[in-house]
Amino acid sequence: GGLITLDSGFKNTGACESKITFLDGEKGILRHRGYSIEDLAKGSNFLEVSYLVIFGELPTKAQYEKFEKDIKRHTLLNEEMKNIIDGYPKSAHPMGILSSMTCALTAFNPITVNVNDPVALYEGIVKIMAKFPVLAAWAHSKTHGMPLNYADNSLGYVENILNMMFKIPTETYKINPIAVKALDELLILHADHEQNCSTSTVRIVGSSEAGLFASISAGVSALWGRLHGGANQAVLEMLEAIQNDGGDVEKYIAKAKDKDDPFRLMGFGHRVYKNFDPRARLIKKAADELFEDLGTSDPVLAIAKHLEKVALEDEYFAEKKLYPNVDFYSGIIYRALGIPVQMFTVMFAIGRLPGWIAQWREMRLNKEPIGRPRQLYIGEPLRPFVPMDKR
Ligand code: CMC
Questions:
Q1: What was the ipTM of the complex prediction?
Q2: Distance from the CA of 322 to the center of ligand 1, in angstroms?
Q3: Mind giving me the DSSP string for 128-154?
Q4: Pairing with 132, which of 5, 125, 319, 368 sits 20 to 30 Å away (CA)?
């Protein structure tokens, strides 16, 4: 082989050409298929953005209605999936449940989503769009000892997520349109983010010609970690810790700056954004609007704002260009919607699903080769084998 360039963490390596998402980290710009994230957050809805991200164009009314209808046709899961979920302890983390249940779908839908067959490809896409939120809601129900609900196909995509999570058989769960609006916007803001850790995982797994569902399941696992999607859970736990510690924001800023202390300011910093994450800006505004609409408040929002202010005025954060990212304020919204902290990353996964699908589809349609990074070997040179009795 030729010369190998080492680039740990792929900080400077482009892995593909893509037409899906444009991101300018210096300027803090994010666009999907050419549309600004601000316009999409304001004027669109999650299902429409999903269609756009996956297929490349905004849907016509007929295309949108067909997409929605086709998704609704696939919201049932094979009842035997319940045997699998029954096996989990209640203490299981919902991300672990979601990842493995997504992979379990392959057993009941043994389709190989053939990218050269547009009908099969479309079928695979609507199936995973339909079934994934059901699995996410089941992960929530399981860990709360609640009954497993199915989608109510008279409801919209985002309404259904809340309904499946919170509906209990003895009561009518009244969906709050304010909650639906807030969740819809959050999901839009998570729809895609080019070659991040989970998306790269989906592409790499898919590049071996593993199926769509298996690739997405791997993406869920990649998202789980606290340096990636798991940061939204970590942020809220951090804000609560600060609150319980008397709200001493400065102490935590000092800890984050201390190189001997492993603590990092969760929800701050980004591999690509060296400026405000445009999603964080929109989410902060959405949080303010939500509390106004609900007529409630949350003391951790004030702590988060204080923390942001102190960090942004601090030399350390300025020098390293560390700004709030998408995960900094999102958890505060989830919490206001009654979503438990362990479910935050699951909500992120529902939002990122269209991005994973779009990137998998693009990768396969582009006939990209198998993802297979190289390495620089720095281990032992050849040495003679020593039998066990001589060691
Ligand atoms: N608090 C304190 N210091 C930080 C932070 C932070 N949150 N983030 C980066 N730094 C410092 C880091 O210590 C390093 O300093 P030095 O140059 O002195 O060694 C410098 O800034 C550069 O950081 P890095 O770790 O080399 O940057 P990276 O691109 O490898 O990591 C990151 C990016 C997002 C993993 C990192 O900023 C981080 O750990 N942030 C906290 C976790 C988080 O919020 N993750 C969510 C990311 S956004 C959306 C998502 O993926 O979910």
A1: 0.97
A2: 8
A3: HHHHHHHHHHHHHHHHTTPPPPPP-TT
A4: 368
